[in-house]
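Input for the complex:
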Amino acid sequence: MEGLEDGRAALRKARGVVMFTGAGVSAESGVPTFRDPTDGLWSRYRPEELASAQAFARDPVLVWRWYADRRRGIRQCRPNPAHTALARFLLRRSDATLVTQNVDGLHQLALEEEARNEGSPPVEWERMLSLHGDIFRVRCTRCPYGRTQREPMGVEDEESLPRCPDCDRLLRPDVVWFGEVLPREALEGALRAARRADICLVVGTSAVVYPAASIPRATLDGGGRLIEVNPARTALSALADWRIAEPAGRALPALLDRLPDPTEP
Ligand code: OAD
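Predicted:
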């Protein structure tokens, strides 16, 4: 794999590593990405047309059906070797931070499983940051109410849509939509870690959705370097020092497993 040995050498020496992931890291688990061409049920809609407060106000049934479909698919999915390799790296390297745009919860699941296997304590919250929310949470469109909701809900018509138990307004998925602000602490924490990092490892993202896409650029601004893992070229490829043009499930175990921890004496 081109870029692999150089990437490993750079990671071995690095002080501060940020891993920045997108939908591609979950592709081998069976979660569809957003921008790759598909002939699926939803291929005629662009994500911007469904994932927005305007779309929800216009047609909440359509938006809820899209999310119900994604939730149904994701519920069947398991972490793949890419999630596991990232989780192990995060548990072993105290100078690493994982920042994800994904809402599928597969990084968190892999981390829980690996921490249990290795008998490690869970990582501090500021080293596992989700920028776009959690598809298995719902929240009220008006009041502060929110809860975890893994079980399916009725979304066939307006009458059956889930409603807030406190104020009776519609509930919505607790994810960040286009035009909405990202959770402040997570974004600030991610930018801080990215600016300090020697390396940003960018995996499975087209890196076109801002402000999330400013994370790898913050590492470059701070004098650090990029490793990109993605079978296709992206907006970041020209800026990457090393590119591994392979699926994440193949590339990440080869890149990350059994790297010694430079922060240990
Ligand atoms: P995209 O669908 O834009 O990009 C997925 C990327 O993953 C592409 O560059 C693919 O080439 C790459 N890819 C596909 N299979 C892969 C594999 N097996 N291994 C590695 N890479 C692979 O998804 P994101 O960049 O995550 O936001 O999209 C960013 C945001 O836009 C999402 O978080 C979501 C979306 O609309 C919100 O919902 C707010």
